[in-house]
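DUF3109 family protein
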Amino acid sequence: MIEVGNVLVHEDLINNDFVCNLSKCKGVCCVEGDSGAPLRKDETHILKEIYPKVKPFMTAKGIEAIEEQGTHVIDTDGDLTTTCVDGNKECAYVTWENGITKCAIEKAYELGEIHWKKPISCHLYPIRTTHYPEFDVLHYDRWHICKDACSFGKELQVPVYQFLKDPLTREYGEEWFEELDKTVKSL
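Predicted structure tokens:
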């Protein structure tokens, strides 16, 4: 582990390459799994607030799921997650463009309708964060559906942490990311 401030970064984020390759995977991470995307408590309030502005970008079945279950749910493990449709598979906020999943929240953000890009767990993926009272631990979540992202990252020689510079900076700040990058380059 590499310690940067109050964050422990697993070496897998440095020693493995990753670049999303949506032309290959079609964004299947947004429609597969056993529950929705993890949420922080403060994000549940944001989802409630922005839902009316995100709704026009959502699918009919996504809207139906939100109207029935709410803008977020508590999954079988007791964790806050995004609402899903189709038996806890597809995220209710998924929309489709040319056969590729997109995020209705992010679409509303890109068009200036809202000022929040999407849940941080989505933005950081394939990094998963374990929060402790005094520090966070960043892990690399390996999932077979991301094999094309791994090979594309290897081809481009982009480590996981570098691919996720924007969300890491969003979460921990520019100075934190610069310190991580400096530490990695000194290894």
